[in-house]
Amino acid sequence: MTWVTTILEPSPDGTLHIPVPEELRGYRLSVQASLHPVDAAGKLCATPEMVARRMEALEALRALGGLSDVIPDPVAWQREMREDRPLPGRD
């Protein structure tokens, strides 16, 4: 199995063309793709639609009263969830 990581720009017709390593040419290939928008520097970014969906989800959660019925004391919950370790020189 060979992993190929690349950033591709869609063709005008909306298709992507994946470069195939020389040693795999001539074979039928199984391809798994994960599509994520990236900025000019190649870093993952969110589209305006994604941001809008996230904001809608947060508004819906806020309208339902948030998570106060599930996590009544967020500070205590965080302490319980973290697995702190003793730091050297601190008591």
- Give the radius of gyration: 23 Å
Query: How many beta-strand runs?
Result: 0
Which residues form runs of ≥5 with pLDDT under 50?
Answer: none
| Overall SS class | mainly alpha
Largest sheet: none
How many helices? The count is: 2
Overall geometry comes to extended
Order of helices and strands: HH
Kindly state the percentage of residues in helix.
25-40%
Distance between the termini: 50 Å
* Strand residues, percent: under 5%
Mean pLDDT: 87
Topology record:
Elements lengths: L47 H16 L10 H8 L10
Structure description:
The chain has 91 residues and is mainly α. It has a domain at 37-81. The chain is 26% helix and 0% strand. The chain is built from two helices and no strands. It has helices at residues 48-63, 74-81. It starts with 47 loop residues before the first helix and ends in a 10-residue tail after the last helix.
